[in-house]
Amino acid sequence: MQRFINNPDDLVDEAVRGFVKAHRDLVALHPDNARVVVSRTAPECGRVGLVTGGGSGHEPAFMGYVGRHMVDAVAVGELFSSPTAKSFYDAIRAADAGNGVCVLYGNYAGDNMNVKMAARMAAKDGIEVRTVVANDDVCSAPLEEREKRRGVAGEILMWRAGGARAATGASLEAVQATAQKALDATRSVGVGLAPCTLPANGRPNFEIAPGTMEVGIGHHGEPGMEVVDLKAADAVADDMLDIVLAEQNLVAGDTVSVLVSGLGATPVNELYILYDRIATRLDAMNVEIMQPLVGNYFTSLEMMGATLTVMKLDDELRALLATEASCPGLKVTP
Amino acid sequence: MAELDSDFIARFFRDAAIRLEERRDELCQLDGFVGDGDHGTSMANGFAALTELVRGSSSHARGPAALLREAADRFLSHVGATVGPLYATGLLDTAQAMEKDAPWQVREFPRFMAGIARGIARRGKAGQGDKTMLDAWLPATRAAQASLARGASAAEAARDACEAAAEGARATASMIASRGRAARLKERSIGHRDPGAVSAAIIIEALAETVEATPEAH
User: Fold this and answer.
1) How many other CB atoms sit within 10 Å of the CB of residue A333?
2) Does domain A10-184 have CATH number 3.40.50.10440?
3) Is B204 part of a structural domain of the chain?
4) Which of A166, A183, A304, A331 ranks highest by number of CB atoms within 10 Å?
């Protein structure tokens, strides 16, 4: 393995420490929990708190989205592994200003259990907790079993909408409803070109034969819909767009938010090649793109590949996306 | 007959921690096929935290149910993934059962196993055949209950539980996972034993050894 690692057992703690030092203007480490990162602006009087969390290895997710008008606190897990219930609980407490906390996280077995137990612990402290479980990954289950779908890069747009709504001083119910609406309007797909290696394990966690690509691959190498011959970038972009638009019912005059994220090892210029085609096609459909994001926003260690996320915007979501947000992973100035 | 007291639980935790530490790498490798390769670390670290809890004689001051509740807390603060909440809930459910009619005798150890299995099933919404740790816990619990019903000694029942757990863990190799991370792999999960079932069999080995080490169990 060609990696910058001291000891595999320490890599999460060291990465979190480095992250907090690098972004100390925006975030701080929780005083009693080295696996919880808290926004400098949290808790904020009169505002609902937002929490998320997940396994490490997806940087800048999840801790990169802690900041102003984004998430207030994040629980950090081992590589590709849910944080502890205690970490989610500590994050909830750190985010709570007395107005309740909304936990916006991805649909994975460990996260579901740990968030549920953390919410129960917080309830004993009198903190009201609501949750929204992201399931934007189209290929992880058919539409009629949407509750089984995984959460992927679309979570960023959910945090953005939820964070912007919370910033208006809206109630816990209202923030939850907005985050849920943003999620319901969001679809993602991933295409994998090469696997990643967990340092403790030492070998690739799955295989993709040279010259092929896996359409619908998950953020941890979960199998996709099909393995096909690798195509030219435009054809890959077309396939990805077709998959997410199949459930979007876009018509001329609609506005969308588009996120193209690398999975870790794909060069950023290739992401722009994909985006060039995606933007051309949406333009031809007379669909407006608001605030496109192209880069490594939600990765999977050094997996090669990309995800495409499209969120269909209504007036509320459009207004929320136009507001300021500032976190290590994303800066929006109106 | 000896009681299933805090001292018994402390010995069980220590024995399980040693066995899981010895097999940390093997469990991680197994998890590498179907999960994220850290199951050995999660389990070894989790039980090491329980050993820390029962270090010295202070653990003996609390009742066994209170000790199990603290053990559940330790799991929730030291172990994430799915195994943290699953074992925490198993320990909590056992504590609750014990609070109703403690003290239990050592020969009632299948109730201890049943409590853990019940908590795991409740939290994970899984059953036998789902290629999870329950494929070791459920058959082992039933085997121990059946042995005692036949009039076997506690030590014999413990050995039967151990064998049933090992057999249950082996049988997961031919199953398709329907829960957790491995479920995402669908048929790619066939051919590999479930790491959670293998670690459960190791924990049950430790429990059986603790029962057998009780002189009155024979």
Assistant:
1) 6
2) yes
3) yes
4) A166
